[in-house]
Amino acid sequence: MSRFSRLQSRFLGAAVAWCVRRTGGHCEVVDDLRVCRTGRVKLYARGGTQWGDVFVTGDRPVGAGLLAHERFHRDEQWRRFGLAFAAMYAWAQVRDVWIGDLPLNRYELAAEEASDYGGGYPRFDR
C-alpha cells in the first residue's frame, strides 16, 4: 500500500463527499467509515458504492456487516490500488460477471468473505 494510493483514495472520497453535500446530501462518520447519503443526485449503485474513502448510499439502514464490507473495500482495495482500482473493478465486473458465470466480481467476493457476507450478496458455491 503506497502513500500515493492512500492519498488518491482520500482525495476521491473528499471529492465525492463534496458532490454529495452540494446536491443536498449529508455525510457522517459511522464506526470509522465516512458514510454519505445522497441528495438530488444518486451517486451509488445497488445498496451503495465505496468511492475511495467514502461510502455513498441512500436512506437505507447501514448495519455492522455492511460497514465491515465497505471498510474492506476502502482499506484493502481503494487504499492499496488508488484510482487504478476503479478500472480494475470495472474489468473484474466484465470478466467475472458479464463474460464469466459468477454472480459477483472478485473484489465483491473478497469483501463478502472478509465481512462474513455483510454486503448482502447471496452466498454461492464456486
Helix content: 40-55%
C-alpha Rg (nearest Å): 14 Å
Q: Please outline the major beta sheet.
A: 4 strands, mixed
| Proportion of residues in β-strands | 5-15%
The low-confidence parts are none
Topology as a string of helices (H) and strands (E): HEEEEHHH
- How many distinct folded domains? 1
Q: What is the approximate shape? A: globular
Total strands: the figure is 4
Ends distance: 29 Å
Structural class by sheet pairing and helices: alpha+beta
Mean pLDDT value? 95
- Give the strand order, joined by hyphens, for the main sheet: 1-2-4-3
Helix count from the secondary structure assignment? 4
Question: Could you characterize the architecture of this molecule?
Answer:
About 50% of the residues lie in helices and about 15% in strands. The chain is α+β, with helices and mostly antiparallel strands and about 130 residues long. It has one domain (about 5-115). Strands 1-2-4-3 form a 4-stranded mixed beta sheet, with helices on both faces.
